[in-house]
């Protein structure tokens, strides 16, 4: 993302609230994370390399999950919400070994 507004200290203050929705639309989990708390680069850009992690184990259902991210520029007071699908499917099984 671009153009976070630096505070009086010259640093941005961007946080995220993440929600995972299961295939049935129910909330599977939530979490909060600092996204960026540093000065923007010379072009106004912010590099983000860390994010939330989804771990799906049996008996969690297969299907189309959703990650909803509410990203907030706390200096500017603006929040954007984005969603992306995560398709969880049964992995293919290996062919039997030749005998």
Task: Walk me through this protein's architecture.
Helix content is 0%, strand content 40%. The chain has 99 residues and is mainly beta. The mean pLDDT is 85.
In short:
It is built from no helices and four strands. It is mainly beta.
Strands, count: 4
Count of discrete alpha- or pi-helical segments spanning 4 or more residues:
0
Mean pLDDT value: 85
Please state how the strands of the largest beta sheet are arranged side by side: 2-1-3-4
Distance between the termini: 54 Å
The unreliable regions are none
Structural class assignment: mainly beta
Largest sheet: 4 strands, antiparallel
Task: Determine the fraction of residues in helical runs and give it as a percent range.
Answer: under 10%
Strand fraction = 35-45%
H and E order:
EEEE
* Basic shape: elongated
Features:
99 residues, mainly beta, four-stranded antiparallel sheet, 40% strand
What's the topology here?
Blueprint: E1 14-21, E2 27-36, E3 63-73, E4 78-88
Antiparallel strand pairs: 1-2, 1-3, 3-4
